[in-house]
Amino acid sequence: MNDRVLSFLGICRRAKKLVIGAEVTEESVRCGKSRLVLHAADASPNSLKRVRRAAQEQNVPVLCAERSKEELSHALGRLCAVLSVEDEGFAERLREMID
C-alpha cells in the first residue's frame, strides 16, 4: 500500500482516534468528539444523509476521501464507507493530504 492517505488512516486507527461506521460517526459528531468526517467516493447517499446533517449542525468538515469503500476497508481491516477522525492534529493532516 503506497497510498499516503490510506497509510495515515491506518496510523489514526492504531492510535484509536478513528471511528468507523455511519451510526457511530454520527454519534461521535453529535457528542462533539469528531474533528473531521471522511467518506468513500462510492458511499451510499442514505448512509451519508444523517451524518452530513449532524456534521453541518456541529460545524464539522466532511470530505470525500477520493477512495472506494473497498480501498478504505482494505486499509483499515474492516468494512468502511464513513469514518470520523477524533483528533485535531490527525484531522488537520488528513485535510492537507486530501486537498
Describe the model.
There is one protein chain. This protein has 99 residues and is of the alpha+beta class. The chain has a single domain, classed as Ribosomal protein L30/S12 (60s Ribosomal Protein L30, Chain: A, 2-Layer Sandwich). Helix content is 54%, strand content 14%. The chain is built from 5 helices and 4 strands, in the order H-E-H-E-H-E-H-E-H. The chain has a 4-stranded mixed sheet, with helices on both faces. The longest helix is centred in the middle third of the chain and has 14 residues. The model has no long low-confidence stretch (mean pLDDT 93).
Layout of secondary structure:
Layout: H1 4-14, E1 18-20, H2 22-30, E2 36-39, H3 45-58, E3 62-64, H4 69-76, E4 82-85, H5 88-98
Parallel strand pairs: 2-3
Antiparallel strand pairs: 1-4, 2-4
The first-level CATH class is given as: Alpha Beta
Q: How would a textbook summarize the main sheet?
A: 4 strands, mixed
Count of all domains: 1
Structure summary, number of beta strands: 4
Arithmetic mean pLDDT: 93
Helix content: 40-55%
Low-confidence stretches: none
Determine the number of helices (DSSP H or I, runs of at least 4 residues). Answer: 5
Structure classification: alpha+beta
* Oligomer kind: single chain
- The order of strands across the largest sheet is 1-4-2-3
Bulk shape: globular
Radius of gyration: 12 Å
CATH superfamily: Ribosomal protein L30/S12
Beta-strand share of residues: 5-15%
Order of helices and strands: HEHEHEHEH
Tell me the CATH architecture. 2-Layer Sandwich
The separation of the N and C termini measures 20 Å
CATH topology: 60s Ribosomal Protein L30, Chain: A
